Amino acid sequence: MTGRFDPNEADRRWQARWAEEACFAADSDSDKPKTYVLEMFPYPSGRLHVGHARNYTMGDVLARYRRMQGHEVLHPMGWDAFGMPAENAAMERGIHPGTWTRSNIAAMREQLKRLGFALDWSRELATCDPAYYGHEQALFLDLFEAGLVYRKESEVNWDPVDMTVLANEQVIDGRGWRSGAPVERRKLAQWFLKITDFADDLLEGLKTLDQWPEKVRVMQENWIGKSRGLQFRFRLTEPVGGTEDVEVFTTRPDTIFGASFVAVAADHPIARSLAATDAKAAEFVAECKAGGTSAAEIETAEKKGYATGLEVVHPLDPEWRLPVYIANFVLMDYGTGAIFGVPGHDHRDFEFATQYDLPIQRVVAASSELASEPIGEEAACSPGIAVNSRFLDGLTTTQAAAEIIRRAEAAGWGHGTVQYRLRDWGVSRQRYWGTPIPIIRCPSCGPVPVPRDQLPVVLPEDVSFDSPGNPLDRHPSWKHVKCPACGGAAMRETDTFDTFVDSSWYFIRFASQPTDAPFDRAEAEKWLPVAQYIGGVEHAILHLLYARFWTRALQRLGKLDMAEPFNGLFTQGMVTHETYRAGDGSWLSPDEVKRDGDDWVHIEDGHPVIAGRVEKMSKSKRNVIDSDTIVQRYGADAARWFLLSDSPPERDLEWSEGGIEGASRFVQRVWKLANSTGTDDGEDAALGRKLHRTISGVSDAIEALQFNKAVAQLYELASTIEKARPSATRADAIRTLVLLIAPMAPHLAEECWFVLGREGLVANAPWPSFDPAMLVDDQVTLAVQVNGKLRDTVTAPRGLDRAAAEALALSSENVRRQLAGAAPRKIIVVPDRLVNIVA
RNA sequence: GCGGACGUGGCGGAACGGUAGACGCUGGGGACUUAAAAUCCUCUUCCCGUGAAGGGAGUGCGGGUUCAAAUCCCGCCGUCCGCACCA
Q: How far apart are CA A426 and CA A153, in angstroms?
């Protein structure tokens, strides 16, 4: 009998052995069925916390399980290595972003290795490596040549102190998150990818993704935001700045006779022409632009308008004039930047009309009889029957809308159309630590692609971060180049890509990584699409949409024949932890506090500590648990086991000391079983059935990614084996248990396999199979109910016929007492399950 | 406001419409030990019943369908998440 299982020693030994034998290297030429398991690659922040560990453990279980089932598995790992934090570190500590990033990668790689993941490290990649981003630049040029890239002026959040563009998330209460300076809206020329070209494909494609969470599909659907409607023109009674019409879009053409006004956005050409001559209009336009973009501000913002004095003619009645306003709630970048207002049937228009005393007319009612019912305290937005609408009266909302579109198209003043909420993807970032955009701007030739033989365009190393702004732009020589087309003096694009570009194709590069091309089509298609992609729900929209777009763009270019990159998607929950605060309000880490009865105290000074909410692990609240600490204390397997055990994987998992202790106990129990010797003779039928049921149940649970259920069944099996007498069945059960825990606790499994004297590695062993005949017992327990309430259970031979089951149930003492002599009215028998006596 | 998910013991959670609470954590009792740790055994939804037998209540609330509802339907309440002036 060996003593306790020593994870520190065993983990290291088996990790070395797997590496030596290159167990997890994926062979693209293998004849086995191929499975691609992928977890979202991490940003190399420097530390791997247990949240990462949970994500990778789930993927690892699936990868190892598929391997044992005889699949050739691709399970790679890499680094989403460009981004802001590296530049912040450079500014704060004077370290080069590359140095910082690479040392973080080295540290996190070791942390991952200590968790024993079955990863193909030979395919590791980092997006900040020119060997990666050079290919990305080539792909961008492919898109450019295919007309999927353009440059246009666009409004951005500009931090005047840091002299950089900020993402919306980086604007907090109207101020830059780093500088604290009030953010300005500024127009800047930016590169865009034509994702809107694929809006409908991306929307339709969602229907094929039946192995994606419903939630994510709905989120993407809403994000793409398809609306059908009518786009049409109102004629101005007098032209403004050469314009004679105001073009509007509506999803409710049926309400056209309820129109009270027309409103245009502050950025609309008409508003701009007016502002040029009308000082008050100019003032109003400026006011609109000053308004913040935060959700809170929008919510509380009043509907405001400026009456321009202009009028338009109703398209269905030349005598009918409507006033034109500039309004703060009309968006320039949706639809046409102008609307017609129907206060009776739109919340915003109602609010606006109330403010400015415009008519509120009912044109839709629940029934024709209610035509004269006034609109009450709020707009009536539900569909119904058209009323007060001349030739539309009596038609349903849908019919009326169709009728208006038909007339508009026939008369030529408008047409039925589709609008999307989705905008083109702006990929320019005024930052250093990103992929340089491979374009040269020539004063005479315009934007010229960098010639392919000059790729990659590599970031210069000699940059400084001591002053704000983009170091690439400041660099003395980097941007000055000759135009590849005309040879004249030209400038490199100094913007870099949004890091979402980097993550939009990394899964393809993992599958195939030739040096002279982004990927080899035939090889990539052997692995793709990803069978199971696992990551956080925070990427439900952007990353997953961009990756889907990129894949479809490559398909259009004929580079990859695949519409959807991720066959199965799983979004796992976060790992949370209680938070602690000292009396002065400062946050304390879990290491700094201890329990004192029902309360918590600060270890250092014994002062009481307030235990706060259970929250997502975050640096600022100091409730992050580092994976290394846990691995050192309990070993990789206990950590993995706990991360899989306590909660369903899609839900949050609360990290608890008790939970990891329990996992650690289980590791030792299995070790003890593997080391328990006994006779190998004799059968144990009950244990055999339990074993086969467990094989079946654990397999199903892993297939469904319900790891918590797999774990629970393995606990049960272990307990059953512990209680069983020595037998051949028991010895077999122990061997099988070792195989069944292998995907979750691989080091322990190898170690047990070894002491059991088995050949080879568990990592290469086949997954156990079960005998369906062994899943059923000869004896079953029948529930006996009276009027649906359980009164007794009886043991019966399996397959007992209806009459015998009834008789058995009626012979129960409890049942007889319940019936009190009365004859049953009806007896329901569910074979081998229950008998329900209706009295 | 719109969309989505969820609501089960002290806690995390199990449960093809068919024995609610598997499994884990916590807690109680016990064994081993000079003692402790570790380990093992055992109990642990609530109420009545000394106990056992037995009975009652019970899956957010109120209805309904069904021989039978945590599960299906209708209406509320609550929590969480996403989007948000998208015409």
A: 10
